[in-house]
């Protein structure tokens, strides 16, 4: 099992969710985050004053998937989140040692 974690642009969330649902991934966690990558933020003008926006709003999507679904989840997220512009985001894959469904006590792949 793995956790697939993606940092994406906020307006791409629905497309990513739909792509994962079509793949058969049930359940995901979404967190509003701020950060920057190579773009290092940008400048904006507000009421005539220019100021630097160092951290840009992003969405962090986390899904726990079985090993055989990892590449499909990566491909689905990458395709749905891609705009071709800087700041499209990143996908990270982290090993998941154990999963337990609290309600039933199911473990590992059964709990997903």
Summarize the topology:
Layout: E1 2-8, H1 13-23, E2 29-35, E3 42-46, E4 49-53, E5 56-65, H2 70-81, E6 89-95
Antiparallel strand pairs: 1-5, 1-6, 2-5, 3-4
Helix pairs in contact: 1-2
GO molecular function, one term: ATP binding
Keywords: Nitrogen fixation, Nucleotide-binding, Phosphoprotein, Transcription, Transcription regulation
Modified residues (O-UMP-tyrosine): 51
Description:
This protein is an alpha+beta fold. It has one domain: Alpha-Beta Plaits. It is built from 2 helices and 6 strands; from the N terminus they run E-H-E-E-E-E-H-E. It has helices at residues 13-23, 70-81, and strands at 2-8, 29-35, 42-46, 49-53, 56-65, 89-95. The strands form 2 sheets. It has a 4-stranded antiparallel sheet with strand order 2-5-1-6, with helices on one face. Helix 1 packs antiparallel against helix 2. The protein starts with a strand and ends in a 17-residue tail after the last strand.
